[in-house]
Structure formats: structure tokens, C-alpha cells
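Q: Make up one entry.
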Amino acid sequence: MEGTGQPCAHPGCEAAGEFRAPPLEGPGNAEGRPRFRFFCLDHVRAFNAGYNYFDGMTAEEIHHAQRPMAGWERETRAFARAGMGDAGPRWADYADPLDAIGARFRRTHAPERTDGKPLSGEDRRSLDVLGLPADADRSALRKRYSELVRRYHPDRNGGDRSHEAQLGKVIAAYQQLRQAPAFA
């Protein structure tokens, strides 16, 4: 840790105050920013050895602080706005030269539709199964479905049942997309 440039807060000590400790008056000031005293290594060790969290508390306050569920009754804040999911980092706050975090939030799926209709993750997977672009309309969906059924159905390809799994995926994708809001 870089030196603070402050001397040790212990009376008579001339060493640099590199380690912080809370003040005797309490942890914060009127603006809510924490204030600290800075000590040298020897004096911060002495401060920590003599620190007693329960000093000045009544027996009832000590019992209340030591109960098993202490602190759990406070309401916690939400990590993200409801319905918004994980919004990702604010890129202006830091540099990510190795793209270690940014890769998670990069779009690796089909782009959004130009008509503004929403596509869910399931919609995108179904479009990939059918080999359709994100901007496909309902008639393109029906046409592609017909093509793939003719290709994979055992009655249409000489009784070859090796494509039944792919046919099942095509049917499920079509059923999902025809009920999706983007194709309504």
C-alpha cells in the first residue's frame, strides 16, 4: 500500500502512518464518508490487540449482537432491476485489454429483427435449427419447414430412418416459432 504521507496518530511517534484504524468518535462524518486514524505497524498492532467490539455495550446488546441470525433480518437490495437480467459491466469504468469479461456479454447469436419484434433465446435456437435468418417472416418459416420435412421424413427419402432425430428437432423448432411473438 502506498504511504498516505501522514505521520502515525499515536502521540510522540514520528513514523509514517501507513495503516488505518477507525477513529474513537465513530466510523463516519456528516457526509457519510468514513474517517480514519493512521498508525505505524507497531501502533496499529497495539490498537488491534486492545480492540473490543463489545466495549460499552450492555449485556442485552451483546446477547442481541451474538444471536445466530444477527444481521439477516435487514432487507437486501436487488442486484439488478427486476426483469432486466444481468446488464453487464459499464465499460467506461475500467479497461479490459484481454477481453476477459467482455466476451461474456458479446452477442454471438443472430442479430435483432429490423421490425423490432423481440426474439427470445429459444427463438434464436429454433431459427438456427431451421437455418433461417433473424428477419424471416411467417411465410419463410412455413416454406423452410416444408423443405426440411421433405428432406428428413422417412416416407420421403426411401424409408431411411437415420434422420429421425433431426426431423424431431425441426418439428419442435417450427412448433415453437409459429407461436412466438416475432412470428405472430
In short: The chain has a mean pLDDT of 79. The domain at 121-183 is CATH 1.10.287.110 (Helix Hairpins). Strands lie at 19-21, 37-39.
